[in-house]
Amino acid sequence: MKRRTLTLKSKRFREERQEVWKEMETMLQRIEARSVRGLTDEELIKLPRLYRSTLSSLSVARATSLDQSVVTYLESLCTRAYYVIYGSQQRLRDRIYNFFARDWPLAVQTAWKDVAASSFIFALGILIGFVLVSNNPDWFYSFMSAEMASGRTPAASEEYLRSTIYGYESEDGGLGAFAAFLFSNNSRVSIFAFALGFAFALPTVALLLYNGLSIGAFIAVFASKGLGFEIGGWLSIHGTTELFAIALAGAGGMLIGRAVAFPGDMTRVESMRSKAEQAAIILGGVVVMMFVAGLLEGFGRQLIDNDWVRYGIGGSMLTFWLLYFFLPRKSLESAKA
Amino acid sequence: MSAAGSLSVDQIKLGRRHLVTPEGVDLQIELADVGSRIGAFAIDLIIMIVVLIAAGFGLSSMSIYNGELAFTIFVLIAFLLRSFYFTLFEMGRRAATPGKMLMKIRVAARGKARLSAASVFARNALREIGFFLPIGFLFGIGQGGVDGWISLLVSIWAGIFLMFPLFNRDRLRVGDLVAGTWVVKSPRPILAADLITTDAPEVEAAFAKFAFTPAQIDMYGIKELHVLEDVLRARDREVMTDVATRIRTKIGWTWEEGESDATFLRAYYAALRGRLESKMLMGVRRKDKFDRR
């Protein structure tokens, strides 16, 4: 009986393989702390071999060993190794490059139906807001809170309105602070438009309409005092970027909402999952656009008083975005081939 | 820890999931429990708040010279923290925020796919409407408080998002559901010493005294062996005495003068494991003591 205890197969197995496991463990720790690039060439060649032999140890241990600690150890070691080996090894720099050069414009391009629908709904909101307030200025107060309007109501005089669209606005705080505030606020609204998409995109549509209504109402107030052309310039310098970004965020929400509402052959969850990545890429880009819009709004708009220059900047930004997104591009598959 | 093969219903309930690697080995990962996820989130929130307060202090001293710039930086820091703290950490090599790292859990893609940056972004964008938006509403940011009905509705809304992981099998948050991710345990692998140590001659001599008959060894199965392993590793003297007495009664072993409970248990563990493992080599896995094979 004594002999048998001493020559337990699982014990010998552990003694023989232990070194490999320890080596795998230290290498994993190094990779997790720094990265695969911290390894030498020899170690890189060794890594998959270590991984496979640890995996096979796990299979053997499960079949032959009743030592819980060994099996648990190997399970967690293998799982960690699996995530490292089959995880993403892309460098941050490459990721950022790919995002701007391929992923983002392509995601927007392939979602062109949603972009068109979302832009249409947004524009519709602006139009309705404009018509309603033009016919009956009282509507203005149902779309805009007093705080948002900050005095720019139908009751304001032409001189006052004119003063708000030209020159330095001291009451809003400084230029930079205003820009930063707008940037974070607008990004948040876009994130909502996207995140609420899963409820069949209905909240997204409502959010787009509501934002459109308040912008339309805002324009109507200025137009009624004969400042239509001027407010157009004031809005377009940053607005072409900002409003386009909101429309894109809406498109992301609608993409998801559509996937949930019309899953086709998939289950609703699968269908949503299949579109979520694309929608998230669009949204990531929206945050970048909001940052650009914030800069244009905070600095460009307040420093440039000429209407034509404002329209020029706004127009060229819009052209730039449209070309960037919708110029024909190689799709992912053909790029790989 | 079961037989390599399929997981039992109980194991699935406890959060074990299949994950078959391309090499064909089922890793049987374990989902993070809700408690540790709440803990991780709380830690992350505290970190964010501390950073924000520190930034506030740092910038308030700066605002003496340039108030506007200080305010700008503060707004930007707040925004970046709120929107990108989770995203950036989870995009990293460990796929975990500091809170998650402390709780030894990580984000992973459901199924075999790689965890992409876009899914990390998506799962955290949903945090915005599930947590930050309702919190903002309840504290009435900007509008100076909201009325009762709206706060009730917002609380229900937030409640649905917060409780969501409790009501589905895979413990998914709404963001996980949308992004195709889940949160799994990622413990540091620790290899404890083998309980069968026969390196020292005196241990060998001590073991030699115990000659169990096959009938005595055959009293227990794998389940009992694992319990015995836990008892031996925990090293609680009282529990060991208790367990040793019970085993002695069950197998009909007579206690002799000078026989220590720990040595007895170790010797019996070694004998039982040897017996069960050699059965396993013949393809018989004796589940527990009721399994008569």
From TrEMBL, chain A:
Amino-acid biosynthesis is among the record's keywords: no
InterPro entries per UniProt: SpoIIM-like
Region forming the signal peptide: none
Transmembrane regions: 115-134, 191-210, 217-237, 243-264, 276-296, 308-327
Keyword set, alphabetical order: Membrane, Transmembrane, Transmembrane helix
The keyword Transmembrane helix is annotated on this UniProt entry: yes
Name of the protein in question: Membrane protein
Lineage: Bacteria, Pseudomonadati, Pseudomonadota, Alphaproteobacteria, Maricaulales
From TrEMBL, chain B:
RDD domain sequence ranges: 32-180
InterPro entries xref list: RDD
Locations listed in the record: Membrane
TM spans (from-to): 38-57, 69-88, 125-142, 148-167
Keywords: Membrane, Transmembrane, Transmembrane helix
GO cellular component, one term: membrane
Coiled coil feature spans: none
Subcellular location, principal: membrane
Topology in membrane: Multi-pass membrane protein
Signal peptide: none
Superkingdom of origin: Bacteria
PANTHER family on file: SLR0254 PROTEIN
The name this protein goes by in its record: RDD domain-containing protein
Lineage: Bacteria, Pseudomonadati, Pseudomonadota, Alphaproteobacteria, Maricaulales
